[in-house]
Amino acid sequence: MSKSVPAFLQDESDDRETDTASESSYQLSRHKKSPSSLTNLSSSSGMTSLSSVSGSVMSVYSGDFGNLEIKGNIQFAIEYVELLKELHVFVAQCKDLAAADVKKQRSDPYVKAYLLPDRGKMGKKKTLVVKKTLNPVYNEILRYKIEKQILKTQKLNLSVWHRDTFKRNSFLGEVELDLETWDWDNKQNKQLRWYPLKRKTAPVALEAENRGEMKLALQYVPEPVPGKKLPTTGEVHIWVKECLDLPLLRGSHLNSFVKCTILPDTSRKSRQKTRAVGKTTNPVFNHTMVYDGFRPEDLTEACVELTVWDHYKLTNQFLGGLRIGFGTGKSYGTAVDWMDSTSEEVALWEKMVNSPNTWIEATLPLRMLLIAKISK
């Protein structure tokens, strides 16, 4: 199966087209299924057929979190420079890191920094890679241009990674500092200090945060063309009304939009999006998306994934999402990690399936998602 990556690790390029209509549609069509392949979605034009989701959607982790032992320490210091309005993170060195190359007992480590909750490209800073060592010396300053009041609402996350010759990353450990409780006036806090590296904690921390809510309605239309002699497939209509209390990742700025995919398809052709709405944490979209080609049995195997993004310059930062389906953990007989709907999300899908031709409305809390990488 294609793997998934935490949403905040994905680099979302700015490939959004401007929406010119409030309603858009997409057709669900099928290939002959072998036991190892899932039902697929393909474009309504029929110009191309998509490869099997289970076989050839090649998605890889942005980072491998599970293979290496977490050990060792990192030495760094932080200081806020009032004159420049900058946070300076002086990364000095690491020692006793885990060996990615067990035979030669060495790694090619580098350090990556984020100011949480923002994990977009704009907030990411990195040191150079130091090759063939478990005790790398960096002596680099990572700089963030940021107002001190905003800085006091952030957390500094420093993580150490091994980068192999194929540019794949393996996680070696991390440290997180809560800058809200940091004593900026204490001169001792400006001195270099050793911190033990710890296991990955960020996804759990992000999960606990309030990501806001989405107000939406779903409708299943089993016979879009009544009275037609030939059997027709049904449609699922998704009405994204508005979002409420979205988190602010860039101070007071927000420019949000909603993206929809019907899993198991992860191709770009299956995605539909709303327009972006700026300058509010309570954006109103009133955008309807239509997906057709649904047989009754497909309703138990597919899942509506709705994700909310903050569009900034050339990047899109994940804010939160929903997965609306039966939450069975399986799709067309294959175990999948995205069939993980919460009880509220399952309840909405069940009501839609059991009440055809009727709009079923709900307001659901947005949450952290593991998102399958988009295939070409």
Structural class given helices, strands, pairing?
mainly beta
User: What proportion of the residues form beta strands (DSSP E)?
Assistant: 35-45%
Order of helices and strands: EEEEEEEEHEEEHEEEEEEEEEEHEE
Could you state the CATH homologous superfamily of the largest domain?
A: C2 domain
CATH architecture of the largest domain: Sandwich
Q: What does the main sheet amount to?
A: 6 strands, antiparallel
Q: Do you know the CATH topology of the largest domain?
A: Immunoglobulin-like
Low-pLDDT parts are 1-26, 29-66, 202-208
Q: Number of domains in the coordinates?
A: 2
* Rounded average pLDDT: 78
* Topology, number of strands: 23
Helix content: under 10%
Question: Which CATH first-tier class of the largest domain would you pick?
Answer: Mainly Beta
Q: Please count the helical segments.
A: 3
Short description:
One of its GO terms (cellular component) is plasma membrane. With about 375 residues, the protein is mainly β.
Topology readout:
Blueprint (H helix, E strand, L loop, with lengths): L3 E3 L5 E2 L9 E5 L45 E9 L4 E10 L13 E8 L8 E2 L10 E9 L2 H4 L3 E9 L5 E10 L14 E4 L5 H7 L4 E9 L12 E11 L10 E9 L8 E2 L3 E2 L5 E11 L8 E10 L2 E10 L5 E2 L2 E2 L7 H12 L5 E6 L4 E3 L4
Parallel strand pairs: 3-17
Antiparallel strand pairs: 1-23, 2-19, 4-5, 4-11, 5-8, 6-7, 6-9, 9-10, 12-13, 12-22, 13-17, 14-15, 14-16, 14-18, 18-19, 20-21
Q: What descriptive keywords fit this protein?
A:
Synaptotagmin-like protein 2, 3 helices, C2_dom, 2 domains, Immunoglobulin-like, neurexin family protein binding, disordered N terminus, 6-stranded antiparallel sheet, C2_domain_sf, 23 strands, 376 residues, mainly beta, 5-stranded mixed sheet
